[in-house]
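Apologies for my clumsy wording, but could you write out the amino acids of a protein and the tokens describing how it folds?
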Amino acid sequence: MSAQPVRSSGITDTALLRRAFGMFATGVTVVTTGGVTPHGMTANSFASVSLDPPLVLVCVDRGAVMHQRLAAAGCFAVSVLAADQERLARHFADRWRPLSRAQFDGLGWRPGPQTGAPLLDGAIAHFECRVWRQYGGGDHTIFVGSPVAMDWRAGEDALVFFRGRFGLIDQVGGP
């Protein structure tokens, strides 16, 4: 027997809206910027936009440290987390972690050859991007990036986020 739907015609309750958005399973990434003050942030608001030209997007809260860093850097990297990297997702989502280079201490990473932004070890894919466009999106900015480099590992499970929890999808399969 399926549960009764929660209905709302006037969307004013952000807690209910967050729960409804949580019904959409997403991958989990860490978006990074490089330079003198590198920074990272966990993001599930990453998506492919276009194959021709190649474009991706990431949405960043205007009040987040990452917003200022990404806008200033003009480039960023995305590490798509593997199923066993929940610890990294939680680390880069923690508002109380150290800032700048210290937030990467003890973590395996390398600077991206095109952008210098940290690429996290163990991730199943990396994308290095130059900011192509920026668009306002409510309390977020939508940064559209043009990938300049990428790599991936086939056959690995991805970390996913669904109903406010981390997990993995193990029955999808395929390379």
In short: The first strand starts at residue 26 and ends at 27.
